[in-house]
Specification:
It is built from 16 helices and 13 strands. The protein has 441 residues and is of the alpha/beta class. Strand 11 and strand 12 (358-361) form a beta hairpin. Helix 15 (370-382) packs across helix 16.
Amino acid sequence: MSGEELELPLSRAVNERLHAAVPGGAHTYAKGDDQYPQDLAPVISHGRGAHVWDVDGNRYVEYGSGLRSVSLGHAHPRVLEAVRRELDRGSNFVRPSVVEAEAAERFLATVPTAEMVKFAKNGSDATTAAVRLARAVTGRARVALCADHPFFSVDDWFIGTTPMPAGIPSETMDLTVTFPYGDLAAVEALFDRYPDEIACLILEPATGTEPPPGYLAGLRDLAHRHGSVLVFDEMITGFRWSEAGAQGLYGVTPDLSTFGKALGNGFAVSALAGRRELMERGGLRHDAERVFLLSTTHGAETHALAAAMAVQSTYVEEGVTARLHALGERLAAGVRDAAAAMGVADHVVVRGRASNLVFATLDAQGRPSQEYRTLFLRRLLTGGILAPSFVVSSALEEADIDRTVDVVGQACAVYRKALDAGDPTPWLGGRPVRPVFRRKV
């Protein structure tokens, strides 16, 4: 693929089928074709390693695999071997499988800051269970979440804070308050404003920037001083920051934490973990009122738990986190050099930890621009790079990185032309991409 030769007739046809049968044309909003340039939203046929093929037969180097979930690469042999061992043994029973004990023990050995764990199928179930548990143990209703982190759950307590709150009662929305990342004084002010009302603080321990010195420990101290529960959402940081998550890297133990994404390398598994005295409230060995913590029919499918165990073993034994960082550093340096060479270093900006890179596309005034993002994505796609982000998988080779940097350089050359012209419209090929969270279609 090169230049403007990329055409996707079969993908366009399947996208139409998707829109006819699936609201939004995808089962995940972030995968919708509105996130891609018009008529250039490939529908995937299959993937292997760091590459995917669309139904039109085009091959791409893929980033952000499975919305950060496939961190070892597609069809990873060690994970598939573990899954296949379980498939012939049955996947779901009327009583727990021994695999459930083995998977829990493996998780707690990998994340030693947690004392108990319960598995589910998606991140929203885990974060909402953490919120419910915090409300139960504190007797409080209000939730405080970090406003600088983009997503916590599909459930009402979070979606009510977004630009898409349709269908959520105002009474529910009023129970969620927000705070900015990195500002302990702002959190203290929240506790002063809502004394004895805040059940928990929930945030990603880190994202695009490192936590300020003492911030995470300060949050824990504030939460405990005010009788609240500290929850770390480690859906992204889990494994990508360290095998034991950001809490293992920074040495701050939350009361509860949630994991997902990389945990199953594409197989559906998530986890709620935390202090025994809290987690046991969802169990049978206590005298307090019971909490309906997590109870999902498919939460302990044996093949998904086997996948999770294989992922954890692979990370620990093969040093995957270090490889992700090394690959990300090579990519970030190459993209920055390519942007600088084309005079757009202030407009195509790579951000984030090396294992979790994103990019910003800024207009002539330095403002985030969906139009320039569209231009950039279009040039990447026509060059065989599928990159809604620059989040790496360990399956990437240095040659993949180098090829990506070459295509980025070509995209930056077009970007420069658009900036000089003062209008990116001639290079968009249609309507611009849209943000996921928006009130109107």
